[in-house]
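Before a colleague's protein record goes any further, I have to sign it off. What it holds is a sequence and that sequence's fold in token form. Would you go through it and say whether the fold makes sense for this chain? The record follows directly below this note.
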Amino acid sequence: MLEYTGVLIVALVARFVFKERVKSRIWLAIGCVLIGMAVVAQIWASTLSELGVLAGILAAICLAVYFLVGERQVAATSPLAVSFWSMLFASAFWLVFSAWWQVEPQTLVQDVALNGNLGAVSLPLWLLTLWNGVFGSFAPYLFSYMALGRLTATAAGIVSASEVIFAFAFAFLWLGESLDGLQMAGVVLVLAGIVVAQTARPNRVVDLDLASQDMVLLNGPLR
């Protein structure tokens, strides 16, 4: 929950630091998403630790920096290139601090039960690790950078909140977990925020010079 307050930080930085126009619908969408997440997480029934709150705030700041910097990176190069360099530096970091050398090689070939509704299925750890690396790390980063190439950082951040909804969907289908009526209302509120954000599209600005060049390329030089 605290991590996704990073979406609000993105909007505030865009408005007051970069002097970008943030439409009223975006603020409404952020409110819907954050309130919806609070309802889904049932924060009133949670106990908070100081260390946990600090970690959540740092996660929110990191998320905001990710969207703001990523938006500017994909404006200069391709999402695939940004993903490559991001993953390269991340790999270099974990190469030093993850203590990967302490993992016994034979551990990777051991079968691991998937539990829940898939409890009868067991897969080798190396395959699950590969899955997490590709579909849990590289692919999400690539798709998020692709989104930043077509949406503002604020709008992309709001859409990313759908991750929580998919998490609950998989928890229901895979682990048999369920939401009560109030939590379902929170899910609907998050979805409403995402929809509202997509209706707040920026006004299109037409570059007359580029438009003239396109007309020449399509129709040939004017006579």
Remarks:
- The radius of gyration is 22 Å.
- The chain has a mean pLDDT of 86.
- The CA atoms of residues 167 and 182 lie 17 Å apart.
- The chain has nine helices and two strands.
